[in-house]
Amino acid sequence: MYKIAVIPGDGIGKEVMEATLHVLEALDVELDYTFADAGDEYAEKTGIPLPQETIDIVKESRACLFGAAGETAADVIVKMRQELDLYVNLRPVKSYPGTKCLFDNLDFVIVRENTEGLYIGMEEYTEDGATALRVITRKASERICRFAFEYAKKTGRSKVTAVHKANVLKKTDGLFRDTFYKVAEDYQGIELDDRYVDATAMFFLTKPQMFDVIVTTNLFGDILSDEGAGLVGGLGLIPSANIGEKQGLFEPVHGSAPRHAGKGTANPSAMMLSAVMMFDYLEEHEEARRLENALIGVLSEGKVVTPDLGGSSSTMEMAEEVRKKLED
Ligand code: NAI
Ligand code: MG
Fold first, then answer.
1. Is the CB of 259 inside a 6 Å radius of any atom of ligand 1?
2. What is the pTM of this model?
């Protein structure tokens, strides 16, 4: 039995969450849900986008499923990453059948440092402009690189690539790259290399099959993971994991999509694949594969899918179809 915090949030977040929880009922794993509030709607009622009670519920849970927030996303999801020290942002780049991918058979992951770099938000105005501080610490670099190698080992991936710009950012990215090679000494047998971020951005478009696990700093990881999402077609399909020492928070990459909200046509795949990532995190690999394969079945048949995938089914009809596959 796992204690799971569930934060549906706003807009289509609520719809894809409902659909996903309906599908999870058909799995052989006991989940003890605690529902919690956050987001625009909650802030309209109370003035607070992320109440302390929600943070406490997540802290007391083994994992959290998060739908989406709207305009308050920064106050909700960014704050949660900090409060819970969710230092890993894990984003798979995987092509599924029946979807509009630029390449078939892509399957790599981006491990993005989630707590420092340029995103600590220390900016200030100067006399004729503004500056931003980019902080790279040995501690954060070491733990993110170690996570990447451990992840490769655990999931049977053979290569880890560090992505940086150490030729220009000699001290910050120099430290990141050197830490990567130092950590790598503990992981004999895993192939490794390092690349500049600009070249990496190009290779995503020309030879993405060369990547297996990528580990990189915060801003580069943010940009590359959206580029990766573009390779495998559509926000409705892309899940993510935020992982710390104690918890994992699993969420679709998309937001609350206000224009689609209330119509019941949002694609639930990204939320379901976020649940797949949660089961892998909980070491429930068999259930993770069952859920993923049921969804792959529905995607490749392409009959009961949402409009963004070229179908005409609703969110719940697609979920029902995935559930049917699980129960067969
Ligand atoms: P968005 O991801 O909500 O939607 C962009 C477009 O992508 C939609 O108009 C729709 O065409 C498509 N789309 C996204 N998810 C889909 C799905 N499941 N099925 C079918 N189509 C889908 O991004 P947008 O419009 O930039 O932001 C809307 C709100 O969401 C904003 O208030 C923003 O702050 C928030 N947001 C929250 C995030 C979070 O909670 N982690 C992440 C991104 C945005
Ligand atoms: Mg982003």
1. yes
2. 0.94
